[in-house]
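ok trying again, last paste got cut off:
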Amino acid sequence: MWFPPPVGIVAERLDGVRGGRNICGLHLHAYADQLQPKISSLRSEIEQYKHHGLALHAHLHDRSIPVNDAAMLARSMHVRIMLILAVLAAIAFCLVTIQNAPETVRAQGRSALKMWLAALCQAPGLRLRFEG
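nice, full thing came through this time. structure:
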């Protein structure tokens, strides 16, 4: 890691403005040389992501039967709806199981269900109110 030179060293070597520019320029070039491996690795990573995106685009759209974007969006909406229905079914199952259990188990189940629902619905601005 590059650190600026001590003030005393710069003041000793300073032969006016031109000497200060040379010294600071040399330190800046040394710092730039230290950053080159990190910059080159980031550039190669960016290129890799670009190639990955181009390959994905080619796989989806440049084939004999291209993927329809509207169909892909409809399928993602279908998956979300099925996920919501599965969560609702799990909640209903928990409620039925709690209702058929003895009172001590019911109280534990209700508190566990409340904690699970609170964790599930931690969206900003969403307020949950549990009674009972």
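cool. The two ends are 60 Å apart (CA to CA). Residues 7-61 form one domain.
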